[in-house]
Design brief:
The complex is a heterodimer of chains A (about 950) and B (about 170). Chain A has about 950 residues and is of the alpha+beta class. Chain A has 41 helices and 16 strands. In chain A, strands 11, 12, 13, 14, 15 and 16 form a six-stranded antiparallel β-sheet that branches. In chain A, strands 3-4-5-8-7 form a five-stranded antiparallel β-sheet. A three-stranded antiparallel β-sheet of chain A has the order 6-9-10. Chain B is of the alpha+beta class. Chain B is built from six helices and seven strands. In chain B, the strands form two sheets. Chain B has a five-stranded antiparallel β-sheet with strand order 2-1-5-4-3, with helices on both faces. Chain B has a two-stranded antiparallel ribbon with strand order 6-7. Chain B is globular, with a radius of gyration of 17 Å. The chains are: A alpha+beta (about 950), B alpha+beta (about 170). Chains A and B meet through helix 1, helix 3, helix 5, helix 7 and helix 10 of A and strand 3, strand 4, helix 3, helix 4 and helix 5 of B. Chain A: GO terms for molecular function: clathrin adaptor activity. Chain A: It is found in: Cell membrane; Membrane, Coated pit. Chain A: This is AP-2 complex subunit alpha.
Chain lengths: ~950, ~170
């Protein structure tokens, strides 16, 4: 039996725990538990009042059973009763049960809060601490409401015991994090900050967590903490190893407090006051000096505690990034750790050095460790350490060492762990592009990547190599030659086939002079891979073949033969079959001139931020949401980046040479001129995609907004954009070369919530990123502010809550301001909030509908509009649009089956407005007649609906 | 309605997300949670931590990065790290943000273990089983609201002995 439990334990509990431990099977355990539960239940229900001890024992047993993983559905009341016991052990079990088992919205919360209140005012420090710990553990809003006013008082009162202060500080922190609106520090600020001076180190340790959190949220109000923290730190750092007695840990004075002080300082820029700054620099130097002193103990605890402070100090030095001397010293210190026998230290040194590498002051110093880091990459046993080494190599790479680093990373890739391969591939690809002096090296590197780790080469990587080859004519011949050689390998990765197919299709002519790579040899080589490839690759190869027909007329017969074969022209895959049919036809009927125009070499891609970089950042960065938008974007632009002047659009170099990815049937007209492709797509695009109305439909048919050079609020396209979102809630709201804004929104009754996803498309961070929403008076909005920095390639999410007070016409304006490379960007957009978003569909029977319809006959209750069916009259499309509008589509109501009738109620805070709608398509004239009837006689609403219907 | 009160994006910056003590077989000897998880989530985390920690040996670091939900209601993943140390058959694990100070928490664990050792006079796994309700008290003395509350072993033990003497 454990030492402490002698004499004071609950015997019954110990017996029960032993019983459970002795159970041979899960069944036996459950049986024993059920027996115990029955016993406890009968005790709780029995006539005899239980004494405190028994109650405590049974509650504790229940808690044990719960912790074993069984549900407990009674005993809460008994636990609450224990709270009002005046015996510590009973109270403690009561509070423990509450902390572990009672969730915040329990109806017992009032009773619990009462008991806490009593304990807080008991002046008994032990009870006060129990109560505070309970609040800190549960941290519910109800508790914040009840105690957020009281706890600061306890925290700063002169007569509060130290241990209570400690608990109060952290309890307040918990409440502040959970319900910041309820914790008002105003009058307490200065006294809380001065807790940094408290004599009791434990109070400082606890209080500093609170102060750090408050400072990071309101730096200005708390900035006096800087000088206090510096002087406290200075006193600790300069103290002898035994001065602080209780707070010395393995000869290191107050390691945790030192770390916390150093971390608090990282909420602020370097101190402006020269004396304070001097003192702080002195502290940091002392910490660096101590690292060089012989250890006072051989114990790992000693060195860990010392190094915990050292690493935190280095973080602060890096955070300031203004003291070259300290930065270089930090770097040297970390350099020593790189070879330390402790794996932990090597790991942490690699990690910390990674951030040092980006400082201009220490970049060169970091580079001197390249050999050690490469060695770590090769020899470390722990994959997470190798990962850090790879990160550091990436961070220290520049033009001077790029070739060496890329070569090392490539050779590491051959044996790298699966878990980090994809990231390694991205890194190699980025470095190769970024530091390529001659592009033949770049092409070699990427092809090597595909050879070594083809499975991990994502689309972005091979798209990118193609973009670059297309844009740089000095490398095209080399690229063609290299892929040709690479394809000779008997087994080559499918990604290699893709790149090879694309490049030979474009530039095969550059190597066709050599009889060893004559057109037919090239074709046969590609075609020998065909049958081993997946459908998308085959599709790409077919496109390469048709390009061949244009490049090398002598291959025409052979290729037509291939296209004509049953395995192509009757392929069960629609895409392949369609390509075979179309290409065969195209090659047969088009004149050489037409062919040459249609199959012309791809135009250069607009230079833009590397999609690989964005991907890497995404992999490492937070939000996972961006994937979807990224995807959508690539797809959305497939159908013809060509006709948009190409400035904002970023055509994907996807598998398609021709961009025939769309499954839309090609219209029957014979291709006539060079604009063939564009025509095909502008016809096919929208009609094929609008069937999907909701999200994808939008993404694939939306013209990306052209970025205006001088964005003047609000953008001219704003209204058009607004219309796009009338019937849908998700999609890309805005995009230019720098920024993409995606939106997701949801509405319930008169409330709406919007998620805006701001994606930084560049590799440079946006600073002073700030967004504001201005609403017409009829709407109320609440916007959660963002951090002012948006890293390159990162995506941040913002939530806007909207409440519709009454009907409105004007959409809220969203203004986005940020600095990109120093230049202020200022964009204003209309947020797609239209009155129909607050529609609630209403089902009603035919009789009901027409009765109401007839009742509403006053002119101001009615709006009618005849307009052209700009998007065709397809039934499904129309239905989807009407549903998207938010109304209920009433089937079998209108006697004329051609017509559509809908009903809905617009929910605003002030009133609810019923709305009936009838749409009468006129197929011959290709026009619709909309008639809208409103139950409420508000004309404004009528007009709104009119304009909404207009846009459908 | 719950629609507006759900505070989707506020993932309060709590330093310690949870503290776990597990034995090699994966049995939990202490689980202290500093953010809201539902029971299934807790079980999943417990299993995940056990899986990543037990495969590591002395040549490995005492840190493992893991990807967990940062904010359950919005299903956002974020990187965290588990800082752990093994004592005989028990793994003591603390989950913190990736930017937190590894060594400070590693020694935080050791400090905690030394207190347990002193308090239970050569602590063993069974002490934690039979006195689970006291272990919570020790934890609350040293860590509160996901933060380090008290680091002085002398002070903590003095307080614990005082509580021990109370009825």
């Amino acid at each position: 039996m454990p030492a402490v439990s002698k004499g004071d334990g609950m015997r019954g509990l110990a017996v029960f725990i032993s019983d459970i431990r002795n159970c041979k099977s899960k069944e036996a355990e459950i049986k024993r538990i059920n027996k115990e539960l029955a016993n406890i239940r009968s005790k709780f229900k029995g006539d005899k009042a239980l004494d405190g001890y028994s109650k405590k024992k049974y509650v504790c047993k229940l808690l044990f059973i719960f912790l074993l993983g069984h549900d407990i559905d009674f005993g809460h009341m008994e636990a609450v009763n224990l709270l009002s016991s005046n015996k510590y052990t009973e109270k403690q079990i009561g509070y423990l049960f509450i902390s572990v088992l009672v969730n915040s919205n329990s109806e017992l919360i009032r009773l619990i809060n009462n008991a806490i209140k009593n304990d807080l005012s008991s002046r008994n420090p032990t009870f006060m601490c129990l109560a505070l710990h309970c609040i800190a553990n549960v941290g519910s809003r109800e508790m914040a409401e009840a105690f957020a006013g009281e706890i600061p008082r306890i925290l700063v009162a002169g007569d509060t015991m130290d241990s209570v202060k400690q608990s109060a500080a952290l309890c307040l922190l918990r409440l502040y994090k959970a319900s910041p609106d309820l914790v008002l520090m105003g009058e307490w600020t200065s006294r809380v900050v001065h807790l940094l001076n408290d004599q009791h180190m434990g109070v400082v340790t606890a209080a500093i967590s609170l102060i750090t959190c408050l400072s990071s949220k309101n730096p200005d109000e708390f900035k006096t903490c800087v000088s206090l923290a510096v002087s406290r730190l200075s006193r600790i750092v300069s103290s002898a190893s035994t001065d602080l007695q209780d707070y010395t840990y393995y000869f290191v004075p107050a390691p945790w407090l030192s770390c916390k002080l150093l971390r608090l300082l990282q909420c602020y820029p370097p101190p402006e006051d020269g004396a304070v700054k001097g003192r702080l620099v002195e502290c940091l130097e002392t910490i660096l000096n101590k690292a060089q002193e012989p250890p006072k103990s051989k114990k790992v605890q000693h060195s860990n505690a010392k190094n915990a402070i050292l690493f935190e100090a280095i973080s602060l030095i890096i955070h300031y990034d203004s003291e070259p001397n300290l930065l270089v010293r930090a770097c040297n210190q970390l350099g020593q750790f790189l070879q330390h026998r402790e794996t932990n230290l090597r790991y942490l040194a690699l990690e910390s050095m990674c951030t040092l590498a980006s400082s201009e002051f220490s970049h060169e110093a970091v580079k001197t460790h390249i050999e050690t880091v490469i060695n770590a990459l090769k020899t470390e046993r722990d994959v997470s350490v190798r990962q850090r080494a790879a990160d550091l190599l990436y961070a220290m790479c520049d033009r001077s060492n790029a070739k060496q680093i890329v070569a090392e990373m490539l050779s590491y890739l051959e044996t790298a762990d699966y878990s980090i391969r994809e990231e390694m591939v991205l890194k190699v690809a980025i470095l190769a592009e970024k530091y390529a002096v001659d592009y033949s090296w770049y092409v070699d590197t990427i092809l090597n990547l595909i050879r070594i780790a083809g499975d991990y080469v994502s689309e972005e990587v091979w798209y990118r190599v193609i973009q670059i080859v297309i844009n740089r004519d000095d490398v095209q011949g080399y690229a063609a030659k290299t892929v040709f050689e690479a394809l000779q390998a008997p087994a080559c990765h499918e990604n290699m086939v893709k790149v090879g197919g694309y490049i030979l299709g474009e530039f095969g002519n550059l190597i066709a002079g050599d009889p060893r790579s004559s057109p037919l040899v090239q074709f046969n080589l590609l075609h020998s891979k065909f049958h081993l490839c997946s459908v998308p690759t085959r599709a790409l190869l077919l496109s390469a073949y048709i390009k061949f027909i244009n490049l090398f007329p002598e291959t025409k017969a052979t290729i037509q033969e291939v296209l004509r074969s049953d395995s192509q022209i009757r392929n069960s895959d629609v895409e392949l079959q369609q390509r075979a049919v179309e290409y065969l036809k195209l090659s047969s009927i088009a004149s050489t001139d037409v062919l040459a125009t249609v199959l012309e070499e791809m135009p250069p891609f607009p230079e833009r931020e590397s999609s690989i970089l964005a991907k890497l950042k995404k992999k490492k960065g937070p939000g996972a949401v961006s994937v979807e938008l990224e995807d959508g974007k690539e797809r959305g632009e497939l159908n013809g980046g060509g006709d948009r002047g190409g400035d904002a659009s970023t055509p994907s170099p996807s598998a398609d040479l021709l961009g025939l990815r769309s499954t839309a049937p090609v219209s029957g007209t014979t291709p006539s001129a060079g604009s063939l492709l564009v025509d095909v797509f502008s016809e096919a695009g929208p009609s094929a995609t609008s069937a999907g109305v909701n999200d994808d439909g939008f993404l694939s048919s939306a013209p990306p907004t052209v970025a205006s050079e001088d964005p003047a609020p609000p953008l001219p396209e704003s209204d058009e954009l607004l219309n796009k979102f009338v019937c849908k809630n998700n999609g890309v709201l805005f995009e230019n070369q720098l920024l993409q804004i995606g939106i997701k929104s949801e509405y319930r009754q008169n409330l709406g919530r919007m998620y805006l996803f701001y994606g930084n498309k560049t590799s440079v961070q946006f600073v002073s990123f700030n967004t504001t929403v201005s609403c017409p008076g009829e709407l109320q909005s609440h916007i959660l502010q963002l951090e002012p920095l948006v890293e390159g390639g990162a995506q941040v999410q913002q939530v806007i809550n909207i409440e519709c007070l009454t009907d409105f016409i004007d959409a809220p304006l969203l203004n986005i301001k940020f600095r990109y490379g120093g230049a202020l960007q200022n964009i204003s957009l209309k947020l797609p909030v239209t009155i129909n978003k607050f529609f609630q569909p209403t089902e009603m029977a035919a009789a009901d509908f027409f009765q109401r319809w007839k009742q509403l006959s006053q002119p101001q209750q009615e709006a009618q509009k005849i307009f052209k069916a700009s998007h065709g009259m397809d039934t499904e499309v129309l239905k989807a649009k009407l549903l998207g509008l938010g109304t209920a589509l009433l089937e079998n109501v209108d006697p004329n089956p051609e017509n559509y009738v809908c009903a809905g109620v617009i929910q605003t805070k002030a009133q609810q407005v019923g709305c009936l709608l009838r749409l009468e398509p006129n197929a011959q004239a290709q026009v619709h007649t909309h008639k809208c009837i409103l139950l409420d006689s508000r004309l404004i609403m009528c007009h709104q609906c009119k304009s909404i219907l207009n846009s459908c | 309605i719950t629609f507006l009160t759900l505070n989707f994006l506020s993932s309060p910056a709590i330093q310690i997300r949870f503290i776990l003590i597990q034995n090699r077989a994966g049995k939990t000897r202490l689980a202290k949670w500093y953010m809201q998880f539902d029971d299934d989530e807790k079980q999943k985390l417990i299993e995940e931590v056990h899986a990543v920690v037990t495969v590591r040996d002395a040549k490995h670091t005492n840190f493992v990065e893991v990807r967990l939900y940062a904010c359950l209601s919005c299903l956002q993943f974020r990187n965290f790290k588990i800082i752990y140390r093994r004592y005989a058959g028990l793994y003591f694990c603390i989950c913190v943000d990736v930017t937190d100070n590894n060594l400070a928490y590693l020694e935080g664990i050791h400090n905690f273990v030394e207190v347990l050792n002193e308090y239970f006079h050569n602590v063993c796994e069974l002490d934690l089983v039979f006195n689970f309700y006291k272990v919570y008290t020790v934890v609350d003395e040293m860590f509160l609201a996901g933060e380090i509350r008290e680091t002085s072993q002398t002070k903590v033990l003095k307080q614990l002995l005082m509580l021990q003497s109370l009825e």
